[in-house]
Design brief:
The structure is a homodimer of 516-residue chains. Chain A is α/β, with parallel strands linked by helices and 516 residues long. The first copy, chain A, has 20 helices and 18 strands. The first copy, chain A, has helices at residues 28-45, 97-110, 127-137, 139-144, 151-160, 167-173, 185-191, 198-202, 219-225, 239-246, 301-310, 314-321, 327-337, 376-400, 413-417, 419-429, 441-453, 460-467, 479-500, 506-514; strands spanning 24-25, 58-59, 64-67, 88-89, 147-150, 165-166, 207-208, 213-216, 232-234, 237-238, 254-259, 263-269, 280-283, 291-297, 346-348, 365-370, 407-411, 433-434. Chains A and B meet through helix 11, helix 12, strand 16, helix 19 and helix 20 of A and helix 11, helix 12, strand 16, helix 19 and helix 20 of B.
Chain lengths: 516, 516
């Protein structure tokens, strides 16, 4: 289902130029997925609409937008079509750093309860950073918006005709705490006087727990999709968190890693523990009955992709042409032939900043150990190793605070397609890496949510046992490689702390140089 | 004049495999340059042999070999043809690190006078490191050798029939000190008992000063070359040092930089000052009447070459094909469009270790500041900037010790061919960079030595005034770029000291990982 406008980061459809770090979408494209995508899926899979029992929805987050009281998009109104802040702000819209900084300052001063649950700080990607950006940059959009809402919740609203909010997104991205609710009007007033009543006025709708029923499919949507009117629709779930049940996460101690352009770490704990750089901690946030911990790495597949774009030489392209391989595969094969430590390089994987544990978007990447004999496959291997060290930092942070990690389930595109990456992650973390039967983890997870919401299973445990499962083969750590990586990891950590904890803020100063 | 065997770093002509870090040559190739090269040059330049008045010889150093008393190469004897240590050890033969380390230990313990003149330490590339390697690894070669000699001195010997030693090479590479001579037998004995009498037994021949006459061309060589028997032949001069007079170095305070795969810095001083990382300090070593300071960077053009091999993507190759440019030129053009600091990167230029000022071959390269938007031209520009920072470190070391540098003359391939490199060096050093009229600086310098030795000029000053000269256009620093580079240089220095002065020896530990 190609989107009409894809990700808008240069101009709006009417030609209005966008500032740096903007990433917008048109929510009309999301509706097309329902009204054109669902019928097409039913057709191509030979499933009758009547055989579908309930619906689950997962969505990237925080992807959010302003709309009117009836769900009408502000961007669809002629008077706002040329205003960037009226459109969907995609999760990776990165223009709200000053607002996130301000939120963290105010939350710290006031001792807000949510602050400790957001690890190193409330992110520029999240809900109220984007709301605050809107009120500051486009007060007319803020004034005209009856609602600010997560795209997943908006989509469920379109399906059911009822406005609700997912506890998952509200908890992980929206400062909402189970049993406590949203932050107070005083907090929002301290951010901006006009924001005082943002919850009461613009963040409406009952909160729905995981696997809860947000509503029933409307007649209109039933007709448009080919499904049955009145079927249950589950509360929206954040895409990464949806992957949890698909990775057979039903007990504490299992780390699910969603491995794609970036990495999300999902972990269930029995207790609430404050862990450095754990980006989100929500009770019942991934699977009911557990504390759901979320951490992440801002760029992983993106770093490999960068290298495939920046480091794939013409020579490699010619070499790969012989056996008729893709240059990326050829390079990967050469990198896999190297042993642990044979690159003689160590890198910091901060090409897009550090999400966990340092929560610092202004950090950048480093490669140490380059010589005249350094070849592209060595650099590529060092980048893979660096991303695995990044995950080990996350694991160590959890375990040092008493949140144990017994094994790892990896899903997402990298888990499916890169045995080299999986082996390096196993060797570096010293843990077995299991793979789910289905790599469409977020989609399967959303279906599990839908099945629970539809009453097809009594609880998540039963749904997971029936609908999810793991592959028989797994990736086990190689003891010799583990030994070398222990040493390399010590080097990584030393550089991590030197560049990341204030001893040398060169990365921040380099960013400033640009703007002179 | 293509060499039959070029640089031998894998096998000897008979197939004997060579160890890592070996770099050998066959001196028979050098003779071909005389007997085939000189006649060809005379022919192609329409110069009569009788019109040539004297000969100067420059040579890389320390390139040395063992030979018999009559100059016969040990490698030419059947019993030694399969012994790597019987061949010419090229300057970049790098297998004598343990021997260099031992020499520095013993020299330090004994307080040898030469030690302070060799900056951070006597190099693994130099004369007695290679001799000590031979006696330890191949005592039979040491025993059979009547002489160990610099290749330049050996070549002069072939021309004149008289064995002499150049004060230049002896001073810069051989521990010899003007007015004091060679180190004592006790010193050599402390290195290895069998080495006690190495000077008396195997390092014969009178020392000849710069521009001095080593001998006269023999009948046999006159016939072979087409030149006139009996013409004066100057003492051999190290190639980099030969460039000095060609760069119009006739007063103190002028820094000549020979810019190629590596960089040599040549400077005249009025006094003897001990400067950190100044690789050599020899009285009358570059131009008589001055103290000749030598420093260097182990890899400069080599780093650019590495990047052209490792970082030139297929995409760049395709882009360059449009305007029918070499990909290297296309990348250089893009890098030149970036301003100072716009790469947002800072690198340490230690791809082949650090010669000056740290004198540590085990250091390696670093790039800091990589992001998903880092493009190849940014990396290339950062590498050029890093090499310029390396030169600024050298300049600062000299000036901090009271050896002033007023201007710079750059020669060598990079000076001739890369305006981008020249401009960055001017901006980073804050100094005007002058260019010589002839970029064949070492060749012209050798000719100046020959002219002085031949009595065609009374002294170097007169010869330089007549034979050398500078171009009218020069490269001047841009004040705005200078300001940005002052800040970036501070970053470079901070990283330089962190990785280079013991705070984090990660580079050395990475090297060790390899050997596990």
């Amino acid at each position: 289902m190609p989107y009409s406008y894809g990700v808008m980061d240069g101009r709006l459809p009417d030609g209005t130029p966008l500032g740096p770090d903007f990433a917008l979408q048109d929510a009309a494209d999301y509706l097309k997925v329902l009204t054109e995508g669902i019928p097409e899926v039913l057709r191509s899979s030979n499933v009758e609409g009547a055989d579908v029992g309930s619906i689950g929805v997962d969505f990237t987050s925080c992807t959010m937008m302003p709309c009117k009281q009836d769900g009408t998009l502000l961007s669809a109104l002629p008077e706002f079509a040329g205003n960037p802040h009226a459109w969907v702000k995609l999760w990776k819209h990165h223009a709200a750093q000053p607002q996130a900084t301000r939120i963290n300052e105010v939350a710290g001063e006031r001792g807000e309860a949510f602050a400790e649950l957001y690890g190193g700080g409330y992110s520029l990607e999240w809900f109220f950073s984007k709301v605050l950006e809107t009120i500051e940059k486009a007060p007319e959009v803020y004034a005209a918006a009856d609602r600010f809402i997560e795209a997943g919740d908006w989509l469920v609203w379109q399906l059911t005709g009822q406005e609700t909010r997912s506890e998952c997104a509200a908890g992980y991205k929206g400062m909402w705490i189970k049993g406590r609710g949203w932050p107070s009007p005083e907090f929002f007033k301290a951010l901006n006087p006009s924001l005082e009543n943002v919850i009461a006025e613009k963040v409406q709708g009952p909160l729905v727990p995981l696997g809860g029923r947000a509503g029933l499919l409307t007649e209109e949507m039933a007709e448009a999709t080919g499904l049955t009117a009145g079927m249950p629709v589950a509360a929206s779930i954040v895409d990464a968190h949806a992957a949890g049940p698909a990775c057979s996460m039903a007990q504490s101690g299992r780390l699910a890693i969603i491995m794609g352009t970036s990495l999300c770490h999902m972990l269930l704990g029995d207790e609430k523990k404050i862990v450095e750089g754990c980006g989100g901690l929500v009770e019942d946030g991934i699977i009911p009955g557990f504390w759901g911990y979320e951490a992440g790495q801002a760029a992983v597949g993106d770093i490999y992709g960068w290298f495939f774009k920046t480091g794939l030489t013409a020579e490699i392209e010619r070499e790969a042409a012989g056996p008729n391989m893709a240059p990326e595969d050829w390079l990967t094969e050469k990198a896999a032939l190297l042993g642990a430590g044979q690159s003689r390089l160590v890198a910091l994987d901060w090409w897009n900043g550090s999400r966990s544990v340092l929560m610092d978007a202004e950090l950048s990447g480093v490669i140490v150990g380059l010589t005249l004999t350094t070849r592209p496959e060595k650099i590529y291997r060092a980048l893979v190793e660096a991303t695995a060290f990044g995950t080990r930092v996350v694991i160590d942070a959890f375990e040092s605070q008493g949140v144990p990690i017994h094994d790892i389930v990896a899903c997402g595109g990298l888990a499916e397609k890169s045995p080299l990456v999986m082996q390096v992650f196993a060797d570096v973390t010293g843990r077995q890496i299991l793979l789910p039967r289905s790599f469409q983890a977020s989609g399967l997870g959303a279906a599990i949510h839908g099945a629970v919401a539809g009453g097809h299973y009594p609880d998540f445990g039963a749904a997971i046992g029936s609908m999810a499962g793991l592959q028989e083969n797994s990736c086990r750590p190689n003891p010799a490689a583990q030994g070398v990586y222990s040493k390399l990891y010590a080097e990584y950590l030393r550089l991590h702390d030197y560049f990341g904890r204030g001893a040398n803020d060169v990365m921040k100063r380099l960013r400033e140089l640009r703007s002179e």
